[in-house]
Design brief:
This protein is α/β, with parallel strands linked by helices. Helices cover 50% and strands 13% of the residues. The chain has a five-stranded parallel beta sheet with strand order 2-1-3-6-7, with helices on both faces. A two-stranded antiparallel ribbon has the order 4-5.
């Protein structure tokens, strides 16, 4: 983890993250923006590994910013940091491309601990968010909802994708070519009826391939 972008309009919270992000990622430096416009300026100048994004920003929605970064900077690992813990916000953020979702009402040191999950290949999720995801997807699949079961190799690929590994990293870890991983990914997405990496996180949790806690 090299450089972290913090997009947060509350001064105290933004400055706290700037000061303490190194506790989560010792070698990282933090840069911050109070608005979407400021974030876009930084995104045009710097290379970021991770973005920590609030939802309610003065000039728009952080969810829209996450969606935009997914198109323009797909290499950035986006995590939402917000007061909202309802299904509408959680699943809107995940569908937009967020790879994690942290609730601000927790002590900030707990948020740091959860953010560190990135280093272990896990999505950073507050416990209440993880529970909502599990509850939402706890119903058994009908035959019509899952046309084919995933093979063991497809599960391996899905697990690594859901943990945030890039295609070349998945290929290296599994001893495959990048093109083969791309083919597996296409088949997995078709079988699970998903279209983006964030949905793979949800499926990885639902199938028990990654630990949401």
């Amino acid at each position: 983890m090299r450089t972290v972008l913090v997009v947060e309009d509350h001064d105290d919270t933004r400055h706290w993250w700037e000061k303490h992000i190194s506790e989560a990622f010792p070698k990282a430096r933090a840069m911050s923006a109070a608005t979407i416009s400021e974030a876009r300026v930084l995104l045009g100048k710097e290379e970021f590994s991770l973005a920590l994004v609030d939802i309610n920003l003065p000039d728009g929605s952080g969810i829209d910013l996450v969606r935009e970064m997914g198109r323009t900077h797909p290499e950035i690992y986006c995590v939402i940091s917000t007061i909202f813990d309802d299904d509408e916000h959680i699943f809107s953020a995940l569908r937009a491309g967020a790879m994690g979702y942290l609730i601000k009402e927790q002590p900030l040191d707990r948020q740091i601990q959860q953010l560190r999950a990135v280093l272990h290949g896990q999505p950073p999720l507050s416990p209440s968010v993880a529970r909502r995801i599990l509850i939402h997807f706890s119903r058994p699949l009908e035959e019509s909802e899952s046309t084919e079961a995933l093979t063991d190799r497809e599960k391996d690929v899905l697990q690594l994708i859901a943990k945030g590994y890039s295609r070349p990293e998945v290929a290296e870890l599994l001893g495959l070519t990048s093109n083969t991983v791309a083919s597996y990914t296409k088949v997995i997405y078709q079988k699970l009826n998903i279209s983006r990496r964030a949905e793979a996180v949800i499926e990885g949790v639902r199938l028990g391939l990654i630990d949401p806690y």
